[in-house]
Amino acid sequence: MAVSLKIIELLAFLTLLLLANVIAHTDSIEEIQKLKSIRNSTMAERLEEFKHDDAVDDPEAVADMVYMATRNSTERRKLGFFSCGTGNPMDDCWRCDRNWMRNRRRLADCAIGFGRNAVGGRDGRYYVVSNPADDDPVNPRPGTLRHAVIQDRPLWIVFKRDMVITLKQELIMNSFKTIDGRGANVHIANGGCITIQFVTNIIIHGLHIHDCKRTGNAMVRSSPSHYGWRTMADGDGISIFGSSHIWIDHNSLSSCTDGLIDAIMGSTAITISNNYFTHHNEVMLLGHSDSYARDRVMQVTIAYNHFGIGLIQRMPRCRHGYFHVVNNDYTSWQMYAIGGSADPTINSQGNRYLAPTNPFAKEVTKRVTNLGDRRWRHWNWRSEGDLMLNGAYFRPSGRGAAASYARASSLAAKSSSLVATLTSTAGALRCRRGMAC
Description:
The protein has helices spanning 2-40, 43-50, 59-71, 89-92, 145-149, 419-422; strands at residues 125-129, 155-159, 163-165, 171-172, 177-180, 186-189, 194-197, 200-205, 208-210, 218-223, 226-230, 238-241, 244-249, 252-254, 261-264, 268-273, 276-278, 280-282, 284-286, 299-303, 306-307, 311-313, 317-319, 322-326, 329-330, 338-341, 345-349, 352-354, 365-367, 381-384, 387-389. By secondary structure, the protein is α/β, with parallel strands linked by helices.
């Protein structure tokens, strides 16, 4: 009898063990089928299945937005106790550092806007210009500015002393160069001026550029291994031609034969900031011609500049591309401030426009069109938060929706009431060793 009870208990145990294995096997089959189903589903179905409240449909787009926001913030620049507190984020990035001369390359981290990625010669050695001469544009002497800018390697170019450089021919720059005039009073004047052609990563800072003349019909060196025949140059202060990642900052420009700054032929990723423009007719041209469609890629930020006495028009004059005009001070124009043709997108934010006394020149804007052509009504031009003084007015057109200006937005505009402070030190600065600049 005892043996029978033991047999019964053993059979019951084996039965329970078999039942557990069957259940486990069934769960395993269901899990395998579920995994197969997940593998065979589309990516969209998988995202939908595992989506939670903080999920996004396009994480790369959100990452890009976050990158833009942090890139354009002063927090990114780790200002600490160096912050000047002026509100000008580019200047606050470096100007209160008493050791700016030792930390010159830090400037390359301070650009914002479309030209924010221009590193210039940050990753190269210093080159000290000690000789203002320009005797031979084909065989420039070591120690001259021309010899510096044509080199094939990244260079941060500085000046040993104050100097006036009169160039025999246009100065043709090679890629990855910074011309840094801080600590010296440097004028490029009364001759050829600066050409940025088919290159990338250029920073021009702290120069006086004026009285630029037409040059050309001559041999000019553009690199250590190449020189060639140059046709006539227009006499621009700075000519940007088919180039990208350019930052033009804290220069004083006036009285050139053609434009003070021109950017054409598919140039893009440009920031023009903290400059002081005076005494000139056609100040700034952005876009080669109405028929040159490759300029549709152009994106230019124009920020914290002072458009001052003696200016007539083109501040800027735009074609095809996307232009963010933000927190500039317009204290003088005789014809108009901002003009354009060929359907450019112009985003004017937080500027101060002071109209001239001429009652027929109060309008900030000018569309360059053929008589009777009404297509300009569809061009996206807007004024947002601008301060209009002495009867100034901006004629908007196109769509007012913010999405229409996404490609013409490059930094957060500040209140137009702050423009006087933001632009108070526009132009070349007087920086001294051991003192905040």
